[in-house]
Write a structure and sequence with these properties.
This protein is α+β, with helices and mostly antiparallel strands. The protein has one domain. The chain is about 60% helix and about 15% strand. Strands 1-2 form a two-stranded antiparallel sheet.
Length: about 100
Amino acid sequence: MAPATIKIVYDLKPPIGIDAGDKPTAKKHVFEVTPDGQSTKEFYTALRSALEAARNEVGDELTAWRDIVGKAELSKEPKKKKADEEEDEDVDEEMEEEEQI
């Protein structure tokens, strides 16, 4: 039987202007499933371990990206909120004008 592997590939497209330093935007992982023996139980034990390793490694990498992009987006939020407030004021003014008519 051929050895089992878990392959994970991602290619992130961060927003323009995001400084991620040396973090790669594309990465490929291969996690080997290496059971200690031939039994089904040993295979699933090894599979569970490989899945946990994959989840932890890829999860840590993607969490770092989420934090980088999230911090950059937070700095943009106040600017957007002002525009939203202006729209709300325009809507309020229009409603007042309609009430006067």
